[in-house]
Amino acid sequence: MAKMNIKEIARLANVDHSTVSRALRNSPVVKPATIERIKKIALDHNYVPNEIARSLKTQKTKIVGLIVSDIKNPFFTEIISATESCLTRDSYNIILCNTNYNVQEEQKFINILFSRSVDGIIWSPTSLEHLHLDFFKTYKLPCVLLDVKVSNLATNSVFVDQEQGAFSAIRHLVQKGHRKIAFLAGPATLSSSEQAIAGFLKAHKTYHMTVDKDLILRIPQNYDASYSATLKLLKKNKDITAIFSLTDFMCIGIYRALQEKGLKIPADMAVVGYDDLTLTRFLQPSLTTVRQPNSEIGKKAAELILGNIHEGTRWKPQTVTLQPELIIRESS
């Protein structure tokens, strides 16, 4: 029996070999029935496409690198799922890298992805101070930044208007009568944290409230840190009546600390989160939060990287700004 390859499949299917190639990539120019027939022949004969040979011919590996800061955070999990789903429809695979907010790990993964000749990188930077953009400028590799707002930066980016999201959260708490509001923000190196703090301060100015800088805590984005920070807040600031968190994930720690101190939500302390993660919808009482369109972030990032890959040097960097939405539940 002849060695199974695209030409042999084409002979068995009675089509041109280019049709087989397109069918195996789910090209829309090939009829669905023809795609199904060709794939059945390939499956029956245990044919596996030679991706190495294909990449040498097309100069494309059909792989996109995806770098995130914390794979344990459901915020990134939802983005990863949406990104992968969109890329898969265009026959792309991903290499997933998790930095754990470590700049050295981030640099290591960037080097690995370049060595693997990925077609592009979707990337949530660990720090604004270390964007490593010289790599991308030098090698002209398609890149999409996630959740980062940087002015005068010639690269693709997708981010949510965090300033408006934080403003709407504080406005809601003010309308509920709160004047002493603590904010558990992220590290200063995070773009999203700085944007949210700007919204927090803007709301205080709009409603003629005094800003107590001691009530803005820059902490790691995890529930252990938020648990400890909430206990410290309760010990030092007896007059706060509300806590706003940069992420829903951190609210798990806030809830635990309040419960340990015998404080009821929202009677003794109102809590507002940010993200509207599926996981935290099961908190009791249900969490008021600022909804981020996480799936849309992943989808838009995938669309931008594919457009950049396909257009090459003709592509002009694009920025997609998505809007958040306040979801009022029982915690406020």
Report on the structure:
The structure is a single chain. About 45% of the residues lie in helices and about 15% in strands. It is an alpha/beta fold. The protein folds into 3 domains: about 5-50, 434 Repressor (Amino-terminal Domain) (Orthogonal Bundle); about 60-160 and about 295-320, 3-Layer(aba) Sandwich (Rossmann fold), CATH 3.40.50.2300; about 160-290, Rossmann fold (3-Layer(aba) Sandwich). The strands form 2 sheets. The chain has a 6-stranded parallel sheet with strand order 2-1-3-4-5-11, sandwiched between helices. Helix 11 (about 250-260) links the parallel strand 8 and strand 9 (about 270-275). Helix 5 crosses helix 12 and helix 10 (about 225-235) crosses helix 11. The longest helix is centred in the last third of the chain and has 18 residues, at about 295-310. It is elongated, with a radius of gyration of 24 Å. The mean pLDDT is about 90.
